[in-house]
Amino acid sequence: MSAAQTYRSTAARSRARAAVPGRTPASPPWRAAKGVLLLICCLLVIVPFLSIVATSLADNEQVTEAGGFVLWPERPSFAAYSAVLAGGVVTRALAVSVGVTVAGTALALLSSITLAYGLSRPGTFGHRPVLMILLFSLLFTPGVIPSYLLIKQLGLINSYWSLILPTMVNAFNVIVLRAFFMGLPRELLDAARIDGANALQILRRIVVPLSRAAIAVVGLFYAVSFWNAFFNAMLYMNESESWPMQLVLRTYVVNNAAIGAGEVSVAGAALPPSYALQAAILVLSIVPIVVVYPFLQRHLRKGVMIGAVKG
Asked: In this predicted structure, what is the pLDDT of residue 103?
């Protein structure tokens, strides 16, 4: 095919797409305006992130001259990261956050999947009362004082279970999974039941493999929620050695308080500026989620379409 024929074919396809009923081609000024708006939105997200990373790598002189807002480190240095990781408080907090996130996400997915599957099957014992209780919890949440008294009566103060159990089941996530399970072909489940599979086998071998996109999205919601949680730790964890990463971050950044006596120091070197230390802790707190996200992106693209209108 010649270049002229290729051009005519491409132009014909473009005219055909433009001739679709109800679709009018956007004018060049409108496309340019949308491009500028999209660029502005991207810059609003990217520039603060780059500034935090650059500030964490900048030296004392540059941070002081820039007033704490650095866009490009002229003399990159890892002194702030060395100072933050030297004392062991941040590394211990990272280990606590990773453990709570992994264990909490696994338990939350297990409980949410089983509960959503039970509520998606009509005729299940206690189907309607449990569903009503679940919907009721979306409208009315327990207060801080009743929650604290309950955790105290259960003996979970200063226990990592106090960071997992209160938020282990999220009603919204359960409803999302239930809606996805109800959309699965019922004939497939009935065929498995006729072949002798019980409810647990159907859930493990058919429902879960077909629902990986929805489970990945809900799992990401749970993981981000457990990782970013600090309020429960502030209420229930009285010992600083058991604090998760986000509470350490809040204590140092918001309150501008030292993490511990002698914890933030570099032997034989000047202490980095407070802005660099804060930026370094902030970068360390978001790296795990940034690392995990690409592995779930493929499922996330499918899962965000849950509930969309099919046509």
From this structure: 93
71, 75, 90: which is closest to 277 by C-alpha? 90
Question: CB-based burial of residue 103 (10 Å sphere; 0-12 exposed, 13-18 middle, 19+ buried)?
Answer: middle
pLDDT in tens, 219-258: 888 998 999 888 888 889 888 788 888 888 887 777 665 4
Which of 90, 67, 144, 31 minimizes the C-alpha distance to 283? Answer: 90
Domain residue ranges of the chain, discontinuous segments joined by +: 25-77, 82-303
Give the integer Cα–Cα distance in Å for 264 and 90.
10
Please report the pLDDT score of residue 114 as a whole number: 92
Which class is domain 82-303? mainly alpha
Q: CB–CB of 160/242 below 8 Å?
A: yes
CA distance 165 to 215: 20
